[in-house]
């Protein structure tokens, strides 16, 4: 199938308004997601600036970073979109990359030691 | 229907970026590329973590003495906000509002430019202090990691600018919609990498 | 007569190949380029073997021997085996999944030209002040202090050709995910397509660490970086990690498609469905995954500590399980089949025991305490040549015979093919079997000569004789290929036993592959059609317009720009060559200029209309079209 085969379909007024509304609601959700991200960032910087124990800060900021990345991937980048991403194949590749990345961190932090 | 078919808001498809096979391929291909970039940045991060604070005997620079939280916070805010503005741009693309999309992409560009300016200022500041690229293994790893991210940001800026100029006069069609969408994906990914940089490099650096 | 059916002049034909985005033409180009580098690297191996034929030989100097062994390894892995497998992937994958081309034809061409010009750049080092000489692994503690520009050629050449490989890998992944014909579900894909998918995923995740490692080497050697300099806080072990994080999956990148090729050949000539198809798929994915978790077994003697060594040893041994599954599946496919011992089948039958031998010595080395003994000895050389020659080269030779009609619409000579097999196969075992014993007797690898009286003389002599036999085998193979030019057209499904879609296409294959997209009704679709007495694949659509991509010279120009820029970067460290910076800038300007032209110029491709298709088919297959 190429662009050649894509039919041009005019939407009915009701469909058009529904889609517009749907997009607007979606956009509002994105702004909320953004607010959450800003909030998480703020907490991360705040705990460091407040000078808590590093054994409390380190795991907390790492956790916050992971939450934020998952939010970016799923909310802003739509990684969950099964229909257009060939049934999760894309998400599989992405998570595989993340898993392999994790083994690098583990190895470089543990067995490069002199 | 051709790539150059003119649309109205009523005929514009719901997911214009995926209406053609070329568009679908482009998006799948770009995601796969991003998976590859994850591993690329992971190699740089892992090396940085292994070389953090390592230098010749008696090196006076450490992450704790060097990094400045307010600056990193400002950079983070600029880049995070630019991620939201690119979401707005795609929202307007879906609504066939070309002017809106152009405006929000231009705002994204400005925020990205601001980020880049702060980064250049930061690097220049460090070099001024004597923390040059060849000063220590730590310096080399730091500049390479953050610099590679900065290079990605500049590439994104050039990319989006080129897209805007090229399509300035011809409006949205099914040929350029996937291009805008993919550029926005790239911009989000830059943000994802930055989240790890400000956490692993700056925040974890300040606490030592 | 339309422009599609006109004969072209020589210049136009060359231009056509430089600008082509057709996966079949690119496959032929990969085949030719891969064969060229295979011959060069094989010649280097022969020079080394002649040097080692007798003790205290002075056929080549010690320094040149280092260059030979480095270039032999680098060329064979990056520039011979990879492109030869890419030739088969490019040719077969779109045909096997019923697609008209790959997902990104432009990137396919870019991948080829980056690989080719990167490879040429690396080989120019021989004529421009010395080749790299730190081994194909180029460990930082050696390569940082290697004088001259040899290592710089290695770093820049591999960076460019590695980018090409990465681009091609990405392209295959997207092609397989999105371009499958109707009915071609993941679990109906031919095994070669499956292994290509997994191998491409490995390329995708393994090449970035290499890119970063090379970047660090570049920065350290040319711009005063300190990644690997221990006096400045750096650590040479980081290079070893990054290199092997890439290097171990690289082995699977090469061997998995080889497994896939044999998984096509064995069922065809056993005339039986592949035994345990789903377990084969599972084993492929598992090998791919485990391949990323075992890299440190190349570094047991680096001193990672007993815990790390134990973990990596266990993970390494675990890979033997899925590999064993595959071996049993092949044997059980042959078992009870109606076997035809053709040349490809002969290679497959030779492959199984040879590869198992290589795999078993691998499990021996996976045991860390024993590896302390075997490390850097000829035992290692014997092991990986059993895997690579016994696994990959036999696959390449066997499937060259098998798929020659798909590539060129000609058959290779069977009698000569069988002779080639026996000469090559006996030569291979003669060369490498005795090297196991040399290793156990203590002969270290990568030495340019040895003293007499250590009991190594006899075995080294035998090994060299075997290497010469392998050389003769390769020459016979090339003669066979050249002879096929004069052969008769092979026609559709010339073996009579083709199972998958690529055999269902009438020969010669038109540039749009499928006049109508086929409908896939099960595993081995062409076999199903033949079982039902059909002379033609079942189609999923009526004859209609076909959308095809335009040719483009831009990939060549982008690659050429990087090729030029690489010379600038290379000589930039020399104080007496101030012009080098301009070469660098001009090269990069060409590359980025070409990229910008690509971005701003619309490329919609073109439509091939029904009348054109019918005219092309009439010209290819005679009046009445393809019936």
From TrEMBL, chain A:
It comes from the Bacteria. The keyword Transmembrane applies. It is a multi-pass membrane protein. The keyword RNA-binding does not apply. The chain crosses the membrane at residues 31-50, 56-77, 89-113. Keywords: Cell membrane, Membrane, Transmembrane, Transmembrane helix. It is found in: Cell membrane. InterPro entries: Cyt_c_oxidase_su4_prok. One of its GO terms (cellular component) is plasma membrane. This is Cytochrome B6.
Automatic annotation (TrEMBL), chain B:
Its main location: membrane. Keywords: Cell membrane, Membrane, Transmembrane, Transmembrane helix. Signal peptide: none annotated. It is found in: Cell membrane. The chain crosses the membrane at residues 28-51, 71-91, 103-121, 141-165, 185-207. InterPro entries: Cyt_c/ubiquinol_Oxase_su3, Cyt_c_oxidase-like_su3, Cyt_c_oxidase_su3-like_sf, Cyt_c_oxidase_su3_a-hlx. GO terms for molecular function: cytochrome-c oxidase activity. Residues 1-206 form the Heme-copper oxidase subunit III family profile domain. One of its GO terms (biological process) is aerobic electron transport chain. One of its GO terms (cellular component) is plasma membrane. It is a multi-pass membrane protein. Belongs to the cytochrome c oxidase subunit 3 family. This is Cytochrome (Ubi)quinol oxidase subunit III. It comes from Lysinibacillus mangiferihumi.
Automatic annotation (TrEMBL), chain C:
It is a multi-pass membrane protein. Residues 9-521 form the Cytochrome oxidase subunit I profile domain. Pathway: Energy metabolism; oxidative phosphorylation. SUPFAM superfamilies: Cytochrome c oxidase subunit I-like. It is an enzyme of class 7 (translocase). Its EC number is 7.1.1.9. It catalyses: 4 Fe(II)-[cytochrome c] + O2 + 8 H(+)(in) = 4 Fe(III)-[cytochrome c] + 2 H2O + 4 H(+)(out). The keyword Oxidoreductase applies. Gene3D superfamilies: 1.10.287.70, Cytochrome c oxidase-like, subunit I domain. GO terms for biological process: electron transport coupled proton transport; oxidative phosphorylation; respiratory electron transport chain. It is found in: Cell membrane. GO terms for molecular function: cytochrome-c oxidase activity; heme binding; metal ion binding; oxidoreductase activity. Keywords: Cell membrane, Copper, Electron transport, Heme, Iron, Membrane, Metal-binding, Oxidoreductase, Respiratory chain, Translocase, Transmembrane, Transmembrane helix, Transport. GO terms for cellular component: plasma membrane. Pfam families: COX1 (PF00115). The chain crosses the membrane at residues 27-48, 68-89, 110-131, 151-179, 191-218, 238-262, 274-296, 308-332, 344-364, 384-407, 419-441, 461-482, 553-573, 579-600. Belongs to the heme-copper respiratory oxidase family. This is Cytochrome c oxidase subunit 1. It comes from Lysinibacillus mangiferihumi.
């Amino acid at each position: 199938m190429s662009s050649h085969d894509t039919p041009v379909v005019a939407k009915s007024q009701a469909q058009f308004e529904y889609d517009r509304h749907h997009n607007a609601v979606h956009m509002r959700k994105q702004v909320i997601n953004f607010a959450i991200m800003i909030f998480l960032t703020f907490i991360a910087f705040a705990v460091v600036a407040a000078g808590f124990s590093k054994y409390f800060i380190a795991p907390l900021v790492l956790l916050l970073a992971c939450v934020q990345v998952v939010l970016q991937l799923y909310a802003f980048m739509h990684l969950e979109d099964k229909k257009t991403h060939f049934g999760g194949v894309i998400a599989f590749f992405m998570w595989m990359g993340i898993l392999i990345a994790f083994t690098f961190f583990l190895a470089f932090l543990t067995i490069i030691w002199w | 229907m051709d790539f150059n078919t003119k649309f109205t808001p009523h005929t514009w498809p719901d997911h214009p970026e995926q209406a053609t096979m070329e568009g679908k391929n482009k998006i799948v291909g770009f995601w796969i590329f991003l998976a590859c970039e994850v591993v690329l940045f992971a190699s740089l991060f892992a090396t940085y973590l292994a070389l953090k604070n390592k230098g010749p005997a008696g090196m006076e620079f450490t992450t704790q003495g060097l990094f400045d939280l307010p600056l990193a916070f400002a950079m983070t805010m600029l880049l995070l906000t630019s991620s939201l503005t690119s979401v707005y741009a795609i929202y307007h693309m879906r609504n066939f509002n070309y002017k809106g999309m152009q405006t929000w992409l231009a705002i994204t560009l400005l925020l990205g430019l601001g980020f880049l300016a702060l980064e250049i200022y930061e690097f220049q500041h460090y070099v001024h202090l004597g923390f040059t690229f060849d000063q220590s293994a730590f310096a080399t790893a730091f500049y390479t990691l953050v610099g590679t991210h900065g290079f990605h940001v500049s590439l994104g800026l050039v990319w989006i600018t080129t897209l805007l100029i090229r399509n300035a006069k011809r409006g949205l069609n099914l040929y350029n919609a996937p291009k805008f969408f993919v550029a926005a994906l790239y911009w989000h990914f830059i943000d994802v990498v930055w989240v790890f940089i400000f956490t692993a490099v700056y925040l974890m650096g300040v606490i030592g | 007569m339309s422009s599609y059916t006109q004969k072209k002049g020589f210049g136009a034909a060359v231009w056509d190949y430089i600008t082509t985005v057709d996966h079949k033409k690119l496959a032929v180009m990969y085949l030719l380029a891969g064969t060229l580098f295979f011959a060069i690297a094989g010649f280097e191996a022969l020079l080394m073997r002649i040097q080692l034929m007798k003790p205290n030989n002075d056929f080549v100097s010690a320094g040149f021997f280092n260059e030979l062994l480095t270039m032999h390894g680098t060329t064979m892995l990056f520039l011979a085996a990879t492109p030869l497998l890419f030739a088969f992937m490019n040719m077969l994958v779109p045909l096997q999944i019923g697609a008209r081309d790959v997902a990104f034809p432009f990137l396919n061409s870019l991948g080829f030209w980056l690989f080719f010009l990167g490879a040429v750049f690396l080989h120019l080092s021989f004529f421009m002040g010395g080749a790299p000489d730190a081994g194909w692994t180029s460990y930082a503690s050696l390569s940082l202090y290697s004088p001259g520009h040899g290592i710089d050629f290695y770093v820049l050449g591999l960076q460019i050709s590695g980018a090409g490989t990465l681009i091609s890998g990405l392209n295959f992944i997207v092609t397989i995910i999105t371009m499958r014909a109707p009915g071609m579900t993941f679990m109906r894909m031919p095994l070669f397509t499956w292994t290509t998918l997994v191998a491409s995923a490995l390329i995708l995740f393994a090449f970035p660490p290499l890119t970063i490692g090379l970047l660090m080497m570049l920065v350290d050697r040319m711009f005063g970086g300190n990644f690997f300099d221990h006096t400045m806080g750096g650590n040479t072990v980081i290079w070893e990690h990054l290199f092997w994080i890439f290097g171990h999956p690289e082995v699977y990148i090469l061997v998995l498609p080889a497994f896939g090729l044999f998984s096509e050949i064995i069922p065809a000539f056993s005339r039986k469905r592949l035994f345990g198809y789903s377990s084969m798929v599972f084993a492929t994915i598992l090998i791919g995954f485990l391949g990323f978790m075992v890299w440190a077994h190349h570094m047991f003697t680096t001193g990672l500590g007993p815990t790390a060594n134990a973990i990596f040893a266990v993970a390494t041994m675990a890979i033997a399980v899925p590999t064993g599954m595959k071996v049993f599946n092949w044997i059980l496919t042959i078992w009870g089949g109606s076997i035809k011992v053709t040349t490809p089948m002969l290679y497959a039958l030779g492959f199984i025991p040879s590869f198992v031998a290589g795999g078993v010595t691998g499990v021996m080395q996976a045991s860390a305490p024993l590896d302390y003994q075997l490390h850097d000895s000829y035992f290692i050389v014997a092991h990986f040549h059993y895997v690579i020659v016994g696994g990959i080269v036999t696959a390449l030779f066997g499937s060259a015979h098998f798929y020659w009609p798909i590539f060129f619409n000609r058959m290779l000579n069977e009698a000569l093919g069988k002779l080639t097999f026996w000469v090559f196969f006996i030569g291979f075992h003669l060369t490498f079997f005795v090297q196991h014993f040399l290793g156990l007797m203590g002969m270290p690898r990568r030495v340019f000569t040895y003293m007499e009286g250590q009991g190594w003389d006899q075995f080294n002599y035998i090994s060299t004789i075997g290497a010469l036999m392998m050389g003769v085998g390769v020459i016979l193979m090339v003669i066979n290929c050249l002879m096929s030019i004069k052969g008769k057209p092979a026609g559709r499904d010339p073996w009579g036993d083709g199972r998958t879609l690529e055999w269902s296409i009438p020969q010669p294959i038109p540039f749009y592959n499928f006049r109508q997209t086929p409908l896939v009704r099960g595993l081995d679709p062409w076999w199903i059609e033949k079982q039902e007495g059909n002379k033609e694949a079942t189609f999923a659509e009526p004859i209609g317009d076909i959308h095809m991509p335009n040719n483009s010279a831009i990939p060549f120009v982008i690659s050429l720009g990087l090729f030029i820029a690489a010379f600038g970067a290379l000589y930039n460290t020399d104080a007496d060559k101030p012009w080098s910076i301009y070469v660098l800038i001009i090269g990069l300007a060409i590359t980025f200029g070409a990229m910008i032209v690509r971005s701003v110029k619309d490329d919609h491709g073109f439509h091939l209309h029904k009348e054109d298709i019918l005219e092309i088919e009439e010209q290819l297959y005679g009046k009445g079209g393809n019936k």
